[in-house]
Design a protein that fits this description.
The chain is α/β, with parallel strands linked by helices and 513 residues long. 32% of the residues lie in helices and 25% in strands.
């Protein structure tokens, strides 16, 4: 496709129907008989907790996944979309959570690069004429000559949307488009896109966690829960409570865990006025105040991207705080390796293979990352005692049921559940543990691994360990926590003992309402 003067002619919106879509990955059913209709010239919200099946559904629509069953209809014609190129050819475009533009190239170069043509020679004089004409008709303006690396996050997101408008997409799928934007930028972007919808130029499928965005910018909503269709309806006929009920459900089978009643609970972790920034320099969270006591599991609920990842990274020494103070057992804590050892702070980070392990090193070596420089695994704090490292690893492999061919197997060769068991063994086996910080410890694991990890966390709590459990799985938090917090847009907006927790109110707060 080459843009010419007539490329400024607006596209017409299309109707998209997804009929009984199912997607299985082996024995895992990620999506089961989900149907959805995006009416032409409307904005349709797609809601659901993390893991509800939203990404799986849109990846089937875009051709990244081949559905196990189901059909895609566009304007009453059946289409077999086998790749994103097929999706583009029928007018479906997608704006992803993460930027896809080339940072070193200019806005103009990225727009031309996004095309699916095979031109060998680019006439930049003609291209610029067409690009300026396109910009004059577009809802957003971005300087064509600026390198992408010089754009602010809001401008980068606008460029991602502009690329799809430039490609004449009639249906636009937006995957959490406001996650990297400030509230004002989010309202501007969605407001301008809403104008395009109302003008009859686009149909939009908006994936979001935020009820406020659904209420303000969409006409209809579909809600998924655990891979199934949980409900749908016209937004004007629904309340936030209705959507929260669809998204979170009402009947929850609480997991049975045996907790020991503990007395004389003293604060172990104390956070006062803590703040930190995201990678792009915008504030990630804060100021935050919280406390976790001996023998207490404090669960932190929140939709991904609301500051909880950065908070865990600060507590684990992986990100600097911009202000505030952290105390562990009454002592100032700066999250250095020596402080973590002396104060008994241990972590189960998200994505353990990336954040808690050295992939090419063996299981035994990874299990020794905490202790390799101390007796009996080190002599005179200098020489490694390999026999002692292997013996300790063998004991932990047995105690924590780590399935590995041998202690010398590279940890990257293990399944996700066994990588997590390896990290769990290293972090929970130390007798000096006082504080455990766990972030989404069971994400993507099978049922047996989940049960094992849950039991290990509760056992640590019963021994008097203070546990901060950050998770996007509300059922997990309700089952394990003694107290539950909600973080939204970097602020703690809810705090309740688990016995008094209101699931609907938690859902409202998680969604920023």
């Amino acid at each position: 496709m080459t843009l010419t003067a007539e490329s400024t002619v607006k596209t017409t919106p299309a109707e998209l129907k997804v009929v009984e879509m199912t997607k299985r990955f082996g024995s895992l059913v990620a999506l089961q008989d989900v149907s959805l209709t995006l009416q032409p010239g409307t904005c349709h919200g797609l809601l659901g907790e993390n893991g509800a099946g939203k990404s799986t559904l849109v990846k089937c629509i875009m051709g990244f996944y081949t559905p196990t069953a189901g059909e895609i209809w566009l304007d009453d014609q059946l289409h077999r979309v086998k790749s994103p190129k097929d999706a583009h050819e029928v007018g479906i475009g997608m704006v992803y959570q993460h930027f896809t533009s080339v940072p070193a190239m200019t806005v103009a170069e990225n727009l031309v690069l996004s095309r699916y043509d095979h031109s060998q020679v680019i006439n930049w004089k003609e291209e610029y004429e067409a690009l300026h004409a396109f910009m004059d008709e577009s809802p957003f303006r971005v300087d064509l000559d600026l390198p992408v690396t010089q754009l602010a996050a809001g401008q980068k997101q606008k460029l991602e949307i502009l690329k799809q408008l430039y490609l004449k997409s009639r249906i636009l799928i937006l995957d959490e488009p406001t996650s990297v934007l400030t509230p004002d930028e989010a309202d501007e972007v969605l407001g301008l896109l809403r104008q395009e919808v109302e003008a009859g130029h686009l149909s939009i499928l908006l994936i979001t966690h935020k009820f406020r965005e659904v209420m303000a910018f969409t006409d209809e909503v579909t809600v998924l829960r655990k891979g199934h269709l949980a409900g749908h309806g016209q937004v004007k006929d629904l309340t936030v409570a209705d959507m929260a009920h669809m998204m979170l459900g009402e009947e929850r089978q609480a997991k049975t865990v045996t907790k020991v009643a503990l007395t004389d609970m003293a604060p172990v972790l104390q956070v006062q006025g803590l703040c930190a920034n995201k990678d792009n320099g915008l504030k990630a969270f804060g100021p935050v105040d919280l406390a976790v006591h001996t023998g207490e599991i404090v669960g932190m609920a929140g939709v991904s991207g609301n500051g909880q990842r950065e908070l865990v990274e600060v507590l684990a020494g992986q990100r600097p705080a911009t202000q505030g103070q952290i105390y562990v057992n009454g002592q100032v804590y700066g999250a250095t390796r020596s402080e973590m050892a002396s104060l008994g702070v241990f972590t189960l980070p998200e994505e353990p293979l990336r954040n808690a392990c050295v992939p090419g090193m063996s299981v035994a070596e990874n299990m020794a990352l905490r202790t390799f420089d101390r007796p009996p695994q080190a002599q005179w704090n200098l020489w490694l005692v390999l026999k002692a490292i292997r013996q300790a690893a063998e004991e932990l492999i047995t105690a924590f049921s780590v399935r590995t061919p041998s202690p010398e197997t590279p940890i990257q060769n293990l399944s996700g559940g066994n990588v997590q068991r390896t990290v769990l063994a290293r972090e929970l086996s130390a007798p000096e543990i006082k504080l455990l910080i766990a972030a989404n410890p069971c994400f993507g694991l099978d049922f047996s691994a989940v049960d094992f990890i849950h039991s290990a966390i509760v056992d640590a709590r019963n021994r008097g360990v203070a546990v901060l459990l950050v998770s996007e799985d509300l059922d997990e938090l309700l089952a394990l926590s003694d107290r539950i917090l909600v973080i939204s847009e970097g602020q703690l907006v809810y705090d309740s003992p688990i016995a008094a927790a209101d699931v609907k109110e938690i859902g409202h707060r998680m969604a920023g309402h």
